Amino acid sequence: MKICMIGTGYVGLVSGSCFADLGNTVLCVDKDVNKIKKLNNNEIPIYEPGLEEIVLKNFKSGRLKFTSNLSSAVKSSDIVFICVGTPTAKNGSANLKYVYEATKEISKNINKFKIIVNKSTVPVNTGDEVEKIILRRVNRKKFEVISNPEFLREGDAIRDFRFPDRIVVGTNNKLVLKIFKRIYEPLIKKGATFFSTNRRGAELIKYAANAFLATKISFINEIANLCEKTGVNVEDVAVGIGLDKRIGSRFLRAGPAYGGSCFPKDTRAITITAKKYKTNLSIINSVIKSNNNRINLLRKRVEKILLNKVKNKRITFLGVTFKANTDDMRGSTSLSMIPALNKMGAKIRYYDPTGEKKIFSNLKNVECSKNISFACYKTDLIIIHTEWDEFKSIDFKKISGKKSIKIFDMRNLYSTKDMKKKGIFYFSIGR
Ligand code: NAD
Ligand code: UGA
Question: pLDDT at position 1, please?
Fold first, then answer.
């Protein structure tokens, strides 16, 4: 199959290169010419484990190409995936500007029958709008708009694409469904469930899935708050409830507020969709509130650990990305915690395996350290913010250069008992 991905970001690049790896010819398009230039020079613009190898292999074989020429890419493809961003608009809804812009461009280049696939996360009914836009120029018989939401996680994106739990396709067109089963056949053979429904159903499944996962995280985070007051270990509670197959053990890790480019934006967007249809998603509204409160709660916890004397204190952040194994800063709790503590007079040092972050470069007294030791040396408080593997066995006594070491571990990477034995003042989440 000849496939074209419009948008070569986290989703477009990962799924495009994985589709190429399954034997398809894939053209990845992006309007960001720098990104395309980098990719054509074998430079990978994002940090995603395992991605470089797949991109290089398929680029060399000629199955994977990168271009800014949307017109010729669409013309020469049978299937066009829309993978552009759907960020949060001012009112909290999904901003569909990029989806509609891409659609208009696609509609100008439909020279033979094409399947237009929405892989971007879009509110229920967007497929209908996309179809209307194309119908302004193109005969109904020449295209089909379907929904095929993406469920990959950053940091685990390659594995998630290759071994998904399910593939959801939203269309009533039997021929298109057959083609899609064929495209995904290698993944279905390895155990993925292929589930088809109508287009709107698929669109809503994506939001419902993200909102449910966000709910699970907020739930365990609130239970963690109770554990802290009652002397219970939240990890025991997570295991104890997760063993019930109706609940399931995954996504029950208590930590900082959930972040990333999707949970915060998608939970908000679905509540706006619900408003439009005069429905109150009160549970999701509470989850959003709980998650926002958590950011303040954690900041207050930092203040308490520093005995309410934040001014002139040196605070170290180990990790600033929203999770490990990604360079993505979107929706990271560090984005609000670092400026807030900085404003209170703290001097912040941070180290992240994916390097310096432009977003902090204008803040006075916020600096990036080149390694863990530099970051932790003679600091007043170490905050383990992101669960990178390299933070899991640090000899804090050796590197801190101080007698009294304080650590706030927001990812529970260490044992309270071991830390106590070492004489470290150790604070964690929900235990
Ligand atoms: P991204 O910002 O990393 O990438 C989007 C890319 O689209 C950008 O490179 C941008 O330049 C390009 N683009 C925008 N308009 C274009 C146009 N008209 N022509 C060509 N290129 C264009 O976004 P992302 O994280 O890959 O997310 C894309 C969509 O997938 C969003 O709807 C998101 O919610 C959804 N999603 C993301 C993830 C994830 O882990 N990031 C997972 C599942 C679903
Ligand atoms: C999430 C979903 O997991 C994907 O299925 C979905 O495709 C994607 O959003 C999307 O729509 O973009 P992602 O945001 O990449 O993926 O990462 P997650 O692993 O889900 O983590 C999201 C946030 O939740 C992070 O801040 C993470 O630290 C937090 N989290 C996750 C927890 O606090 N506890 C957990 O047990 C799991």
Answer: 84
